Amino acid sequence: METVNIHEAKTHLSRLVERAAQGEPFVIAKAGKALVKVMALATPEAGHMRRTGFLTGEISVPDDFDRMGADDIERLFGGGTP
C-alpha cells in the first residue's frame, strides 16, 4: 500500500482519490507517521440495493392488529386493583 506525505496528498488529492475509488487505497502520513488510510467506500451495486416495500403483496397484516391481545394487556396492566 502506498504511503504519501500530507503535502503530496494536498497537491495531488484529486488523482489520489480517483485511484482509491478504483480500489487502490493509500495512507497519508505526517513526518513519517501514518495518520489515515484512504480507501473506496463499499457501496451496493445498483441491482443489489434493498428497496422499501419489497414484500408488497407478499404478507398481510390483520385488520385488528392494533387490538390484538388487548384483553390480556388490560388484565395484566389495567388500572384496576389486583
From TrEMBL:
Looking up InterPro entries in the UniProt record yields: Antitoxin_Phd/YefM, YefM-like_sf
Family matches, as SUPFAM superfamilies: YefM-like (SSF143120)
Chain segments annotated as transmembrane = none
Q: What does this protein do?
A: Antitoxin component of a type II toxin-antitoxin (TA) system.
Family assignment from sequence similarity:
Belongs to the phD/YefM antitoxin family.
Q: What is this protein called?
A: Antitoxin
